[in-house]
Design goal:
Elements lengths: L3 E7 L6 H11 L4 E7 L5 H7 L3 E5 L5 H11 L4 E4 L11 H8 L5 E6 L10 H16 L11 E4 H4 L12 H11 L4 E6 L12 H19 L1 H25 L3 H28 L1
Parallel strand pairs: 1-2, 1-4, 2-3, 5-7
Antiparallel strand pairs: 4-6, 5-6
Helix pairs in contact: 5-7, 5-8, 7-8, 8-9, 9-10
């Protein structure tokens, strides 16, 4: 394999970070490991340094995506692998991931199998919603839109930094941008493990932030799909209202249905203008 760098964002991962670093070193002794200590209040930085990794320090918590961006920029090699410091991902598979990536793909992603990718039942609906938005926009099936274990080229991802989320949706927006710009992505099935320590994700706050960034990426790279989705929703509301009118004929319902249809055509026109403006 060509030389590569492993970037690990870490926020209060003292219990697991050394185990992750040692597991990576055991299979890939010559790779560079960069840990970004994202304002941790425990001994994460010391544990990472003792395990032999390069440690970058944030004075305060800047976010998962911000940590990855800083680590990627500081990395020595062009081939980048990202993973987490909580022991969730099977880092002994990093070599397999890089070898798959080197077959000519733009990004190789460790696709989590089964229900392991849903840390809690509360997160499952949000991730299914984002999966629907991403797959609808790209027109492709995506096994795992936000896996935190993946490989790509530093030189290829740097231009997209302004559009990538600095929070937990970094990987979701990265997947979306790569698909919308016609890049080749391969998925390698992996089995995840139980997390060491507690999750740092806030379901409501981070889900809303992810939705914001996903919408921004769609508007930037393929605005017509977003407006088409809104048109379909309005058309569905119009159809439901019309069916309601059939069983309960009230003049007001026809007016509402007509309004929905009118707005759907109006939005589709705006979407066409946005698409032509993008071109």
């Amino acid at each position: 394999m060509n030389p590569f760098s492993v970037v690990i964002p870490a926020y209060n991962e003292e219990r697991g970070i050394a185990l992750v670093i040692n597991a990576i070193r055991a299979r890939n002794p010559h790779c560079e490991i960069v840990v970004v200590n994202d304002g941790s209040t425990d001994g994460t930085a010391s544990a990472a340094e003792s395990a032999g990794s390069i440690v970058l320090r944030h004075p305060a918590n800047g976010g998962y995506g911000r940590s990855l961006m800083d680590g990627i920029q500081a990395a020595q090699h062009d081939i980048i692998v990202i993973t987490d410091g909580d022991g969730t991902y099977p880092v002994e598979r990093i070599g397999d991931l890089v070898r798959k990536f080197e077959e000519g793909f733009d990004m190789a992603v460790g696709a989590r199998q089964g229900t392991q990718q849903y840390d809690s039942l509360l997160r499952a609906p949000a991730r299914l919603l984002f999966k629907f938005l991403v797959e609808f926009t790209t027109g492709a099936h995506i096994p795992d839109i936000n896996s935190g274990m993946r490989s790509f080229r530093k030189s290829q991802v740097l231009p997209y930094f302004p559009d990538l989320c600095q929070g937990f949706s970094f990987t979701t927006t990265l997947t979306l941008i790569y698909k919308l710009t016609g890049k080749f992505i391969v998925y390698l099935p992996i089995e995840c493990r139980k997390r060491i320590g507690k999750s740092k994700v806030s379901v409501i706050r981070d889900s809303l932030r992810t939705l914001q960034y996903v919408v921004e990426v769609i508007v930037t790279y393929n605005p017509l799909k977003l407006f088409l989705l809104l048109c379909l929703l309005l058309s569905a509301l119009a159809l439901a209202t019309f069916v309601w009118w059939i069983f309960s004929p009230q003049p007001g319902l026809l007016i509402v249905a007509s309004t929905f249809i009118g707005f759907s055509f109006f939005l589709f026109g705006i979407g066409l203008l946005a698409y032509l403006g993008k071109r």
